[in-house]
Amino acid sequence: MPISIGIFTARQSLENIRTVDQEMRRRCTVTYFPYESMAELGKLYEKNSRKFDGILFSGPIPREYVQENIGPIPKPSRCIDLENRDFYLAAARLFAANPGLDFSRVYFDTIVDPAVFRNIFDYGNYPPPFTNRPHSAGTPALPALAHL
After folding, report:
1. CB neighbours of 81 closer than 8 A, spacing ≥ 6?
2. Region 71-89: what's the mean pLDDT?
3. Beta bridge partners of 8
4. What is the pLDDT, as a whole number, of residue 58?
């Protein structure tokens, strides 16, 4: 019997994740749980997570939300995360498409190492952080919720 994975993803990320659906289904059974708010994520997770061998989150913020608001995740879990190069590409596309964009009003839906911000923004002119809680190896994290 193949392992089963519950995938908890923001609704707007669902189609991107489904691009590898056939590859995942060769190795395991997958069930998607798209959500539109953190409250909906919490309800979906509480109702469905026990049914699976493992959990995949569409990013570090939903995983942190579950850990902070529901509790430790007792099953193997992973999250899809942006590589620095993907972050730079997204920022460059934003700059190119919106040359007058006020970045004080931009929030990024990822945990970003502060060094990345220092490479893009002038000192002290970083987008507002969601939290400064440490993450992997004690590096400060700057996660923010995506809203343009």
Report:
1. 59, 60, 110, 111
2. 81
3. 33, 57
4. 87
Question: Which two structure tokens, joined as six digits, stand for 32?
Answer: 């998607």
Q: Which pLDDT band, with edges at 50, 70 and 90, does 99 fall under?
A: confident
pTM: 0.62
**Within 1-148, where are the H helices?**
14-18, 21-27, 38-48, 60-69, 84-97, 114-120
In 3-state terms, what secondary structure has residue 37? coil
The model's pLDDT over 122-148, given as tens digits with 9 standing for 90+, comes to 555 555 543 333 333 333 333 333 333
79, 60 contact by CB (below 8 A): yes
Q: Cβ contacts of residue 103 below 8 Å, gap of 6+?
A: 121, 125, 127
